[in-house]
Every structure is written in C-alpha cells, then in structure tokens.
Amino acid sequence: MLDWTFLPLTLNQIISPQTIAYALAALGLTVHFGYSGLLNFGQAGFMSVGAYFFAITATRFGFPLWASVLAALVGSTAFAFLLGIPTLRLRADYLSIVTIAAAEIIRYTVQTPNLTALTGGSDGINGSEAGFEAINPIPDRVYKIGVQPYTNDDLWVIIVGWVLVGAAALFVWQLMRSPWGRIVKGIREDEDAVRALGKNVYSFKMQALIIGGVLGTLGAIINILPTSLQPDNYGTQTTFFLWTIMLLGGATTVLGPIIGAIIFWVVLSLSDGFIAVLSTANIVPLSQVQQGPVRFIIVGVALMLLVVFRPQGIFGKKKEAYFSA
Predict the structure, then answer these.
(1) Whole-angstrom Cα distance, residue 107 to residue 7?
(2) What does each C-alpha distance from 91 to 42, 98, 120, 240 come to in angstroms?
(3) Chain segment 253-296, per-residue pLDDT in tens
(4) d(C-alpha 295, C-alpha 280), whole Å
(5) CATH of 6-324 given 1.20.120, 1.10.3470, 2.60.40, 1.10.1740
C-alpha cells in the first residue's frame, strides 16, 4: 500500500523554521542583487559567519541572548567589509568570485581539527538555543498544527521567526521607497550615471552588502535554534537554493522572496514524497540514493524555464528584471 502521509506533512513546510530562515536570507539577497545589482554568490557565507558568532558566544563564552545576536550581527558586518573593500570598486563579476570562494573558505576553516574546541569541527555546535528557550512565554505542552505536533519551543521559534520576516520585509520595503533605495536602484541600472551625480557609489554598495548580510545572519540564527549548527548546511548548495527562491518570487520585490521560500520548500517536499511513492510502486525504478538528486534535477529544470520564460519571477515587473535586459 502506498504511503501518502507526506501530503499533509508537506503543508507544515509553509511555517517551518527552515522556510523562515531561507525567506530572510533570500530577502537579504534581494537587497544585494535585485535592488543593488551586487552579484553575491556567497550568501551562505554570511549565514555561516552569523551562525558561528551566535553559537560560539552563546555556548563557549556564555553570552546572554541579546549579546550573542549582537555578536552575530557584528560578525556579518565585518565579513561584509572584508569582502567589499577589495571588490566593490571593481566589476560585478569580481564580487561573485570572491563571495563564493569566501563562503567555501569559511566552511572548510570551521571544520579544521585544530579549531574543533571552538567551532565543533565537522560535528558543529549544539546547545545555542538555551538562552532563546529561557524566555519562551508559551506554556510547556504539545501543540498540533494540522497533523504535525509542536512543542512550545518549536512554536516559539516559528512565532519569533515570522515576526522577524514581517519586520524585515517592512524595513526593506520602506528602505527601497526612500531616497537611499532610489540611489541603489540607480546604481543597479547605471552606476556611472549615479557617480556623475556626485553620489559615493562605493559607500552605497557597501551599505547594501551589509544590510543583505545582516538579514542572512538573522535567517541563520532562526535556522539553528530548533536543531544545531552544522557546517555542511552552509555550502554552495544553500546559496543556489537562495538564488532559486529569489528568482522564483521576483528579484526586485519584497514579497517575492518570502512567497518564493514557501513555494520552494513545499514543492521540494512534495517532489520528494511523490518520487518516493513512485519508486515504491516501481513506476519509476529509483533507489533511495538516486531519489535525492532527481528532485534537484526537477528544481533545476524548473529554474531554467523560469529564467527563460519569466525572468521577473512570479511577482516581479519585467521592466525591472535584471536578467531580461
């Protein structure tokens, strides 16, 4: 008998911490690429830096929650300066090369055996959620949303996470309607023209890089609170997931990355479930090892079709689509 229990469970992906984390990080990538034209292929690096600063200060040094969050934001800001100072005055492709390389350098560095006492090595870091759970006001019992049971700590992460998503979306929306937003959108279209108007293009690019990186850091913190910090979760695959989410929803919109994150994880979960059912019924002869890559092939083909036929994404405007020029 075929197992269709994955269908109701898939709906819980809509509110999951993973969806929240990717919505925040994709919103940051929208600030980078969609609005400012910064070709950042290392958003996973910002997430990794923020996550490690948060987890290390919370578990190794006993920082209170607010101090660990502040340390994570400072860490991602420093990382933005480290990447931006040598590259933002150059062509956009230099930034893409540096960011993807920097993200991988960080991932391999934190797994170095000599740093295991600090970073946890390949095992990552557990226990960074203690300070967050200590301020949980929700009564301690099991709650049920759909068919999925949640503890009070699970609900606390989800509630705080979606409040953060709403606040971040409102912030970016207001920011892009301000004179600052009009300048960075002008830089995206023609930075020489903006420079001719007397604006410091380098400074505005750096500010955009920092803001997008901070949003990625907030997403990483939400991502590790219900589980643990694992270094392999912040590889190039994460960055390309974020690009898929951003392009799916619309690179020049605020709502797009949020809806894109929901659609992406729901579709990925559904495709995984359907492939497993088809394999069980011998309709599609795939082993369990083969099933994982097949769903990513499906997502990859869908992304290519999206870029070709609707480069502005679901909510984007074609005249602002960076890929449609």
Answers:
(1) 34
(2) 16, 12, 37, 21
(3) 999 999 999 999 988 888 877 777 777 767 777 776 777 787 77
(4) 16
(5) 1.10.3470
In sequence order, the 6+-apart residues with CB closer than 8 A to the CB of 114 are none
**What is the DSSP secondary-structure string of 165-209?**
HHHHHHHHHHHHHSHHHHHHHHHHHHHHHHHHTT--HHHHHHHHH
CB 205 within 8 A of CB 36: yes
- Cβ(188)–Cβ(320) under 8 Å? no
pLDDT band at 324 (very low <50, low <70, confident <90, very high): very low
Sorted by where each begins, the domain ranges of the chain are: 6-324
- Nearest CA among 298, 269, 255 for reference residue 23: 255
Q: What is the tens place of the pLDDT at every residue in 211-238?
A: 999 999 999 999 999 999 999 999 888 9
Cα separation of the two ends of the chain: 51
Cα Rg of the chain (Å, integer): 20
Q: Which residue has the tokens 């097949």?
A: 294
Alpha-carbon distance 311 to 325, whole Å? 10
This model's pTM is above 0.90: yes
